[in-house]
TrEMBL record:
GO terms for biological process: endoplasmic reticulum to Golgi vesicle-mediated transport. Pfam families: Sedlin_N (PF04628). GO terms for cellular component: perinuclear region of cytoplasm. It comes from the Eukaryota. The lineage of its organism: Eukaryota, Metazoa, Chordata, Craniata, Vertebrata. InterPro entries: Longin-like_dom_sf (IPR011012), Sedlin (IPR006722), TRAPPC2L (IPR044760). It is found in: Cytoplasm, Perinuclear region. This is Trafficking protein particle complex subunit 2-like protein.
Amino acid sequence: QNYPLYIRSVPTENELKFHYTVHTSLDVVDEKISAMGKAMVDQRDLYLGLLYPTEDYKVHPSSARVAYGYVTNSKVKFVMVVDSSNTALRDNEIRSMFRKLHNSYTDIMCNPFYNPGDRIHSKAFDNMVTSMMMQVC
């Protein structure tokens, strides 16, 4: 339904711009999914890569920030916005980070006390995201 179940940003001073980028990126993810059509169902790896360019934030290779997209087979979307000046991040590292997110999300969904569609308030998930963010920063 395109509302975030979990959102986290560091640094927090431009948090609103990051939220805008994430919400805008969700529309691009939907466009990519519909463009791929039925072929998307057959793929095991649902990594969407770079999403789109903007003036302030880069969601393609040319600005300060880059957003990447990933969608699960159950149509849950993950968007990650990173600093494009971080040359240590390569495509395979981003893929690996999305797989970790997906695995942690699956663990949350297996919790009988979690109601699907509710915001994620899991300490384990938050710790995993924090550790990934520390590796990137």
